[in-house]
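Design request, tokens follow.
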């Protein structure tokens, strides 16, 4: 029996379902398609969407999906790449007095705030950029971490200036914001991960990400998923689905290291096995465990081990 509908996979009925498929579509596109059907009375669609959005925020059905499918139509290159990403049952986790161990086959790292500490240089560049393009903007107060640069810029400048303002910021970042230190423990963790078992999934540009890794003394992975590689950036699932695919794995076989709310949402939407939050602020997010740094964390290709002394306990 096949059942269609957003509510068909709600949490309370999931024990009776053999498999579920979540179709990930941009909210604006979904609304346009609903209106285009032209079969509902005035005001009905708006009321319906308010109820549906409240349900999705509370239930998050994509986190339990057997498969996540792109709702893009017609299918473009990015949609094809992440079209069917089958998720295995989440691997187990073991907690001991010395820390915890997760059974996974691959690691997906966000870059800024996870592997490299770029906060200060980014603040200087963004605030300098804002003097021309977004007066009154303050990086420390207003930045939305985890989003693609062009998505943030689009919310700060008029539509006719988005492209020019974005290119200006890209140039400034590459020129002024690539000399950064490593997050403690990141170089050792990356160096000892088996080849082909990890990648970087960043909302920034590939050139900036690689320059920052080099500056911080962190080895480069075989591939990097950047803002230009996916149709939809974080918090959509596309980046982490693409990251898993780059390793030849399903998202359900991978763990994600993230420091931003948008990235955590992206990882959960993709159906990853485990999310490790980096930094105390991630305790408020949907993470399996939060860590203060990457010191002492190891990954041997099958087991991700996190020592007790870097685990942040909820207050």
């Amino acid at each position: 029996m096949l059942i269609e509908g957003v509510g068909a996979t709600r949490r309370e009925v999931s024990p009776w379902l053999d498999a579920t498929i979540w179709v990930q579509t941009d909210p604006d596109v979904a609304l346009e398609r609903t209106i285009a059907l032209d079969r509902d009375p005035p005001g009905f669609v708006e009321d319906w969407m308010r109820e549906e959005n409240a349900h999705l925020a509370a239930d998050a059905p994509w986190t339990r999906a057997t498969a996540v499918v792109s709702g893009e139509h017609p299918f473009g290159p990015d949609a094809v790449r992440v079209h069917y990403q089958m998720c295995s049952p989440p691997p187990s986790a073991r907690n001991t007095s010395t820390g915890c161990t997760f059974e996974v086959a691959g690691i997906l790292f966000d870059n800024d705030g996870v592997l490299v500490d770029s906060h200060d240089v980014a603040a200087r560049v963004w605030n300098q950029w804002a003097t021309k393009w977004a007066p009154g903007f303050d990086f420390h107060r207003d930045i939305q971490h985890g989003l693609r640069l062009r998505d943030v810029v689009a919310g700060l400048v008029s539509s006719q200036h988005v492209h020019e303002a974005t290119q200006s910021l890209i140039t400034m970042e590459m020129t002024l914001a690539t000399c950064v230190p490593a997050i403690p423990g990141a170089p050792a963790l990356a160096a000892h991960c088996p080849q082909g078992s990890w990648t970087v999934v960043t909302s920034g540009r590939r050139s900036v990400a690689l320059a920052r890794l080099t500056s911080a003394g962190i080895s480069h992975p075989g591939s990097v998923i950047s803002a230009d590689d996916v149709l939809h950036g974080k918090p959509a699932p596309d980046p982490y689905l693409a990251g898993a695919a780059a390793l030849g794995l399903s998202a359900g076989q991978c763990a994600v290291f993230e420091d931003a709310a948008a990235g955590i949402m992206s990882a959960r939407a993709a159906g990853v096995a485990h999310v490790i939050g980096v930094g105390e602020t991630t305790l408020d997010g949907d993470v399996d465990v939060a860590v203060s740094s990457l010191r002492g964390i190891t990954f041997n290709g099958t087991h991700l081990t996190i020592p007790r002394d870097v685990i942040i306990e909820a207050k």
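Comment from the thread starter after seeing the answer: thanks! The radius of gyration is 20 Å.
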